[in-house]
Amino acid sequence: MSAAVFARQDGVWLNEPERWTTAQDDSLEIVTDQATDFWQKTHYGFHRDSGHFLGFRTAEAFTAELRVQCDFRELYDQAGIMVRVDAEHWVKAGIEFSDGRAMLSSVLTNGQSDWATAPYEHDAGDFRMRVTIAGGVLRLQASADGKIWPLVRLAPFTTAQSYRVGPMACTPERGGLPVTFTRFSLKPPLGKDLHDLS
Question: Which domain CATH number covers 49?
């Protein structure tokens, strides 16, 4: 596991929040700014690229993991992990507050955004996300304990020589959401069987 990823000097903010800090234990704490979001066109018709994202450069194939702690309360409050090529080619995945509850959520954008949600049956205030990209394929997994990693999504994804990956948070309807990110790791792709939940 990569050590102290948040301490690396190659992390680049997209829409750096007004309030954020890193700590010796390799944690990142942010508070979201007002009306922040990532979305491209679908259904609503608007283009939004104002969400908070701290991206670290990857190789062309990788696995990244991240722990997220947050108290989701308002419509569209969201936090998790993001992989980004540019403003029209990215994925974000984590928990998003929708329809009165915290939902496991992923948005895959290739010119236009889609949105997939499902009820999250564990503690939405403390969860983990894993993303693997290799050979033009994206694999998303979520975990409540860091040991068992069910599949969230498998999809084709834009191929690139490198990507940016890291923590993401947005509050489209408000500001002031505190989020803590820990246990961020970035390593070569796991290469595990699709139904290997470890």
Answer: 2.60.120.200
Residue 23 in domain: no
Task: Print the domain residue range for 137.
Answer: 29-185
- Please give the tally of structural domains in the chain: 1
pLDDT band at 6 (very low <50, low <70, confident <90, very high): confident
At 112, list the tokens.
């236009």
0.90 exceeded by the pTM? yes
The pLDDT assigned to 5 comes to 87
Collect all residues with Cβ–Cβ distance below 8 Å to 110 and sequence separation of at least 6. 88, 89, 158
Of how many residues is the chain composed?
198
Q: How far apart are CA 195 and CA 49, in angstroms?
A: 34
For the record, the structure tokens of 128 come out as 């983990």
- Whether 57 maps to a domain, the answer reads yes
Reported as a single tens digit per residue, the pLDDT across 24-78 is 889 999 999 999 999 999 888 789 999 999 999 999 999 999 999 999 999 999 9
Q: Is the dihedral of CA 165, 48, 13, 128 positive or negative?
A: negative
Q: Give the separation between CA 63 and CA 59, rounded to whole angstroms.
A: 10
